[in-house]
Design goal:
It is built from 5 helices and no strands. The chain is mostly helical.
């Protein structure tokens, strides 16, 4: 993964944060979050299951699409709880340092 890839995740996180701070009726993100935390969590769960099923089916393109959906919805869930992606990455780094394999 290049720094450009990470940069886009940061840009997407910013876009999501903007949609939460300034909701728009034309925004899927704004609408999803307005439905409440249960709906956001449900979407993360749905996308996780769809990704797992695509992986079992062996459809590479579908795996990529469902992984993108899961990442997006996970970012929405995190930001709706005031958690930045950097905090999750820091946790992964801490785990790696304390338990390298």
């Amino acid at each position: 993964m290049s720094s450009k890839d990470i940069g886009f995740l940061q840009q997407l996180e910013s876009i999501i944060a903007n949609r939460l701070e300034s909701p728009s009726k034309d925004s899927y993100t704004s609408d999803l979050v307005a439905q409440g935390p249960k709906r956001v969590a449900q979407k993360v769960g749905e996308e996780g299951v769809e990704l797992a099923l695509a992986a079992v089916a062996g459809d590479r393109d579908e795996v990529i699409n469902e992984a993108a959906d899961l990442l997006y919805h996970t970012l929405v869930l995190l930001r709706s709880h005031g958690i930045e992606l950097a905090r999750v990455v820091a946790t992964l780094e801490d785990r790696h340092v304390s338990s390298p394999r």
